[in-house]
Amino acid sequence: MPEGTLEVLLVSAKGLEDADILCKMDPYVVISYRTQEKKSTVASGKGSNPEWNETFLFDVSSDDATDIKVKIMDSDGAIGVDDLVGHGRQVNLRA
Predict the structure, then answer these.
(1) Count of CB atoms within 10 A of residue 56's CB?
(2) Measured between alpha carbons, how far is 15 from 11 in angstroms, rounded to an integer?
(3) Cβ–Cβ contacts within 10 Å for residue 13, how many?
């Protein structure tokens, strides 16, 4: 049973290494908290400095894991497999 809500504001990224050769990459972010996963919109053609300004909500309880995982991906659409651009993790979130 959820005891609260974790709100994550995804603002932007800066200085990403471009994963595409012929055009600007189309980055998006996947945020994971325990078994919950949220995906941002694709910042089409935004390249190395995308902006999203999106909010994601996660249900939390007292026995939940205390870390959040973030992956930045480059969408290749129907052409192929999306590329991992970067990842990170925040550990020991506190209320």
Answers:
(1) 18
(2) 14
(3) 19
